Amino acid sequence: MPDLSYENEARSLGHTIICGIDEAGRGPLAGPVSVAAVILPVDFSLPGLDDSKKITAKKREYLFEQLTTDPQVQWAHCEADAPTIDAINILRATHHCMAAAAHALQKKYQLSIDYCLIDGLPVKNFPIPHQGIVKGDGKSLSIAAASIIAKVSRDRRMAEYAREFPQYGFDQHCGYGTKQHLHALHLHGPCRIHRRSFQPIAQLTLPFDS
User: Fold this and answer.
1) Residue 110's pLDDT band (boundaries 50, 70, 90)?
2) Alpha helices in 14-140 (DSSP H)
3) Looking at the DSSP assignment, which residues form a beta bridge with residue 76?
4) Nearest to residue 153, comparing CAs of 36, 2, 27?
5) Angle, CA of 198, 78 and 165, to the nearest 5°
6) Strand partners, 36
7) For domain 5-203, which architecture applies?
8) pLDDT score for 206
9) Is the pTM value of this prediction over 0.85?
10) Residue 178: phi, psi to the nearest 5?
11) Which of 23, 7, 210 is nearest to 114 (CA)?
12) Is-contact 150 36, C-beta < 8 A?
């Protein structure tokens, strides 16, 4: 289970405002990539808080509500849509969102983050001193909190798109390349939230469904 070891280590080095950052949705064929930045209070505890991929959707929703309604938890969320992902590639879009989420968090709470804990490898040219932690959402409580907010925010967005484009079943697979989704793509072609630079969408020749 994640804990505050990385946050406490950063504090021991003199950092005071420490932010966890994580993303959701790098792999799907449709929809945005979603990033959250979270600052937890010292000695924060929330039973069951873990990597969003390890827990059920119902538990994620519960944890999301606990995190986002706790006045001591400071958080912000950012997305990059499919056209942006197609224009600059998924890695750059994700990194841009990470920086944007940290900036939004600073602006929202009128503070200055002095250190970030980021899930994955270090991010080149990131504007704030940081540490990349591979599988950090299962190690750092701040990153785990960010993973919950990023994932639930994205799932809710995909549920909205499911109402706009019911033929794809976005509320069921959230844009991932499931058999159901691939079948719908071959029947209907891509819609405006599909990532047209991703395979197999890039190879489709069916008409654009706006």
Assistant:
1) very high
2) 57-69, 82-88, 90-109
3) 37
4) 36
5) 50
6) 22, 77
7) 2-Layer Sandwich (3.30)
8) 47
9) yes
10) -75, 170
11) 7
12) yes
Cα–Cα distance measured from residue 50 to residue 30, given in angstroms and rounded to the nearest whole number = 25
Which residues make beta-bridge pairs with 75?
38
Domain boundaries, the chain: 5-203
The 10 Å CB-count burial string (b at 16+, else e) for 166-188 is eebbbeebbbbbeeebeebbeee
Q: For residue 210, name the pLDDT band (cuts at 50, 70, 90).
A: very low
Rounded distance, CA 21 to CA 13, Å?
19
Q: In this predicted model, what pLDDT tens digit does every residue of 114-161 receive, in sequence order?
A: 999 999 999 999 999 999 999 999 999 999 999 999 999 999 999 999
- The residue written with tokens 């599909």 in the block is 194
Among left, alpha and beta (phi > 0; psi -120 to 50; other), residue 55 is beta
Evaluate whether 34 touches 153 at the Cβ level (below 8 Å).
yes
Say if CB 22 and CB 36 are below 8 A apart: yes
- Whose structure tokens read 């799932």? 155
Q: Taking the CB of residue 71, how many other CB atoms lie within 10 A of it?
A: 6
Q: In what order do the strands lie in the sheet with 115-119?
A: 74-80, 33-39, 18-24, 115-119, 130-133
Q: What is the pLDDT of residue 204?
A: 73
Nearest to 118 by CA among 49, 24, 52, 22: 22
Compute the mean pLDDT over every residue in the chain, rounded to the nearest whole number: 95
